[in-house]
Amino acid sequence: MVIRSVDLRSDTVTRPTDAMRKAMASAEVDDDILGYDPTARHLEEEMAKMTGKEAALFVPSGTMGNLICVMVHCEVRGSEKQLLETLKEARYPSTKLICLENTHANSGGRCLSAEYTDRVGEIAKRHGLKLHIDGARLFNASIALGVPVHRLVEAADSVSVCLSKGLGAPVGTVIVGSHTFIEKAKTLRKTLGGGMRQIGVLCAAALVALQETLPKLQFDHKKAKLLAEGLNQMKGIRINVAAVETNMIFMDMEDGSKLTAEKLRKSLTECGILVLPGNSSRIRMVIYHHITSDVHYTLSCLQQAGQAIHEPKMLSF
Amino acid sequence: MVTPVIRTVDLRSDTVTKPTESMRSAMANAEVDDDVLGNDPTAVLLEREVAEIAGKEAAMFVPSGTMGNLISVLVHCDERGSEVILGDDSHIHIYENGGVSSLGGVHPRTVKNEEDGTMEISSIEAAVRSPKGDLHYPVTKLICLENTQANCGGRCLPIEYIDKVGELAKKHGLKLHIDGARIFNASVALGVPVRRIVQAADSVSICLSKGIGAPVGSVIVGSKSFITKARWLRKTLGGGMRQIGVLCAAALVALRENVAKLEDDHKNAKILAEGLNRIERLKVNVAAVETNIIYVDLPKDPKFIAEDACKSLEVLGVLVIPQTTFRIRIVLHHQISDSDLDYVLSCFEKLFSSVPEEKA
């Protein structure tokens, strides 16, 4: 039997398309530290425009994007990044920053609305704080909500946006903010070791991603919904379908069911479907543009697996 | 007077090297995968190759030499109150934004870099904190060397010297890290394989994006356990990138095609150095030009400030860097042609054959 490989671990597994590869091969480049790489500059200008911010900076990863943003905003020793729940307590050391995440991954790729983000922005202003948005999957939020990116992040002082997730570029994230913010971010990027030379190679692929893959995100959401609905109909599986707003599905097992996450992970592996390993009773699946008819394949694999577990075949003589 | 055709000759650094056609082709066709969730296959190939070249157990691709050094120092200096001994003119100390301190909490203990890039062995030994655990002292954990030593002019540290520093490190229970950004230059200039040069080192950071011309990246090498810790730190710092095979493919081409070309860069540096030294107002320590870096000393006269001289050279299309008030730095690389060299020499001759105010 031919086992096909369907990787649902994350949208970070996306590989560069032919168009991206072509763009990388012919990218105009220069030393982005000694001066500036022209393709990087083009990408940064594009991202700044899309997010409605003054300036942007390419960084190797979302982790570095967030790290730089938090460090620039909290540049006084003893600063504290505040999670929203504990905001109203008077705190020592001095609170400097609130961070939001849109879409919120651990909640299942949930979207934060522009109105909510604006309200948090107002609170931040009232208390003299900055607002940073971890927008790794910001474009997913924008597409799902039907709200332009710049509107979603209007209240934010800085945003970190991934290019290597659903958009499918091979590497990188762009952070956006004011000119002064980005100047400081540039120095910190160098200090952390994220200052790279001829990055036009990577930025060229990212520009293609913005052109070609961004419009496809809506289909990832449709596929995720389809898969979620199909799985939710299976005995023993429970999915909050309404909560599947973008490209992530959290699959839970019903209490008392013969189906366990462990058994399902095993079945998935046998079918060549990859999900993140773990002991959790929850299985996460992430959809992206390479996943096409794989949705039906995944559904049928799990349906068969589920059937086998619930009604094991009796040996007949 | 015939105005010369303006062309651009970029001698600011060997980091300006652009990917070649074969690199671009390799990048376009690279086999890739998510290097954070698993392993990118081309990255694995590169890392194996570089580990082999350096004679170490394992290797890891990083976005830059700065991160390579930062990670290495932080892995070795793994307790609060650690101290690292390094050259007062070393890249880590001067050009990496003090990251080992500001991010890593590691205290630097500098020792004077001699003209040849070394630090006196006795001075290094004197800098080791003793006794350990003294109420007043940080704990010395690491010695860092730099080969070639950039600020001293791309000088090669001899193997015997490195071995001696290694013995010193062992004697005091310290680790040895080599900032080998230009280790290939050292290897070619000394005629010694990289693995022999770095034999005494616990870790090395090697640049791919300098003289050998890959677009991005460095590789750090060390033991398997060192690299495991390094991987965690790389992710923490934000250097964990996804489909890096694209960049690693170019680096593999660089290793295959451009290491041998470094010898030409050294020859060109020597030729240019000799030519510049023949210009009356300029002085170049030609004997000290061991690899691809040249320092040109200008007359110590306000009319010849390096910054102004560099601006005048820029007008002629020659890009160089003012190293100090009266010193210009020139770095050769494989994308500098013979005719570029002639042009550069003629520009310097034009500029320095008369005193600036006389021209007006």
TrEMBL record, chain A:
Gene3D superfamilies: Aspartate Aminotransferase, domain 1, Type I PLP-dependent aspartate aminotransferase-like (Major domain). Pfam families: Beta_elim_lyase. This is Aromatic amino acid beta-eliminating lyase/threonine aldolase domain-containing protein. One of its GO terms (biological process) is L-threonine catabolic process. The modification N6-(pyridoxal phosphate)lysine is found at K165. Residues 7-81, 83-253 form the Aromatic amino acid beta-eliminating lyase/threonine aldolase domain. One of its GO terms (molecular function) is L-allo-threonine aldolase activity. The keyword Lyase applies. Keywords: Lyase, Pyridoxal phosphate. It comes from Brassica oleracea var. oleracea. Its cofactor is pyridoxal 5'-phosphate. It comes from the Eukaryota. InterPro entries: ArAA_b-elim_lyase/Thr_aldolase, Low_specificity_L-TA-like, PyrdxlP-dep_Trfase, PyrdxlP-dep_Trfase_major, PyrdxlP-dep_Trfase_small.
TrEMBL record, chain B:
The modification N6-(pyridoxal phosphate)lysine is found at K210. Its cofactor is pyridoxal 5'-phosphate. Residues 252-292 form a coiled coil. GO terms for biological process: glycine biosynthetic process; L-threonine catabolic process. Pathway: Amino-acid degradation; L-threonine degradation via aldolase pathway; acetaldehyde and glycine from L-threonine: step 1/1. It comes from the Eukaryota. One of its GO terms (cellular component) is cytosol. Residues 10-297 form the Aromatic amino acid beta-eliminating lyase/threonine aldolase domain. One of its GO terms (molecular function) is L-allo-threonine aldolase activity. Keywords: Coiled coil, Lyase, Pyridoxal phosphate. Threonine aldolase involved in threonine degradation to glycine. May play a role in the removal of L-allo-threonine. This is low-specificity L-threonine aldolase. The lineage of its organism: Eukaryota, Viridiplantae, Streptophyta, Embryophyta, Tracheophyta.
